Amino acid sequence: MVKNLKTLLKGKDHYYLIGVYSVQDTIEYQFLEVALEVDELKIIERQHFSNADEEFKNYLKKDYPVLLHFDGDNVISRSTENKQGYRNSIVFKMNPDDFNFYEYHQDNQIYASLTRKKVIDDVMALLNKNDKFVVHTALGPFVLSQLFSLVNQSHIYTNFYALEFTSEHLVSFTKTEEKNQKVSISEDLFNQNEIALIATFLEYKQGNSNVHFDDDFLNANKEQQKYRKQFKQMSAFTIAFILLALFIGHNLLGHYVESLAQKESLYSISQQTILEVNNLREERELKEKILESSGVIDPNFLTQYFVEIGNIIPESITINSMDIAPALKKIKPNEKVTIDTKIISVIGESENDDDFNKLVKNLRAISWVKKIDITSYTEDKSGNSFVLEIKK
């Protein structure tokens, strides 16, 4: 979509971006569904709602994380000098603890947008009631500072404000009633209803050291969304590995059954044939007992490993496969199949060395892990690939 954004964003996921805009006694909602695929941002859905009715809720069917932007009559935006007690000067005689402050710090100046905590709490309660969780929030026009270096113009218009800026600094902001203004990023145009949502999304993905916003009130929502994502991943891994275990078990049993049938067909030829058949039967039964006792074909046993490993994986690490009790060599007809029930092989990708080291450290802290071997670790521009062998 936007070429300038491709180098700034990484990952593959979907998000709901919702603008909550108050005009007098009414609240309107600007809705964007976006998809981040590889390094490309795509707008999947655009909608505008005059209230949070059933039609609005019908667009929130998927388990995507939610990002909110607030502006309008319920949000106060002002600039002040960065000095002790500056928040009290903004709210006058009201209690600053009743407000959420979103601040953009520039030199000795603070540009602050604030709203009563109840305004945000009410919208979050509405979304939580529909099983949707908020992972990021921004207030007012100053989130647009995220776009200063991306646009080839000196003014940006939202529904409520006009901002003048350079590539690095905010020059001024004023209230405006201008309508139908567009913002150009690379070859794409965004209307003034959407541009603050795009900036909020970029702030969530990139961060902004000049923005100060205490969002601890989002921690419960973030944990719920993180748990939901991990649960879905672990469910997928569990199903995949159960199917793999069943497939391996089926191949093993098929191999032994075939061998047994061949030997039994020669039963009448010699006593030696009978002995060979009995040996194969005993060997098959022994290996079936080994499989059962090792837990390789027990879904509950597998789930213990998936859950314990999955719970300590850093967010930036992607696990591509996890092989429990891998075969020691390629399975061939008429040859014994050997597996190592004491090894778990993990293949994945890490965005950075620190998170990879953290993963290894967390794995070593698991009670049943005896040793971890890093059998492969390669670095390239798109990320770091690794292969771990976990010995139980």
CATH topology of the largest domain: Nucleotidyltransferase, domain 5
**Helix-strand makeup class:** alpha+beta
Number of helices: 9
Structure summary, number of beta strands: 18
Spatial ordering of strands, largest sheet? 3-2-1-4-8
Order of helices and strands: HEEEHEEHEEHEEEEEEHEHHHEEHEE
- Which descriptor suits the 3D outline? elongated
Mean pLDDT: 84
What is the terminal-to-terminal distance? Answer: 47 Å
Largest sheet: 5 strands, mixed
| Total of domains | 2
Low-confidence stretches: none
Helix content: 25-40%
**Based on the structure given, which CATH architecture of the largest domain is correct?**
2-Layer Sandwich
Radius of gyration: 29 Å
Protein model, in words:
The chain has 392 residues and is of the alpha+beta class. It folds into 2 domains: 3-214, Nucleotidyltransferase, domain 5, CATH 3.30.420.380; 226-391, 2-Layer Sandwich (Gyrase A, domain 2). Helices cover 34% and strands 33% of the residues. The chain is built from 9 helices and 18 strands. Strands 3-2-1-4-8 form a 5-stranded mixed beta sheet, with helices on both faces. It has a 4-stranded antiparallel beta sheet with strand order 5-7-6-14. The protein has a 4-stranded antiparallel beta sheet with strand order 15-16-18-17. A hairpin with a 4-residue loop joins strand 10 and strand 11 (170-175). Helix 6 (219-264) packs antiparallel against helix 7 (271-294) and helix 6 runs antiparallel to helix 8 (299-310). The longest helix has 46 residues, at 219-264. It is elongated and about 100 Å long. The chain starts with a helix and ends with a strand.
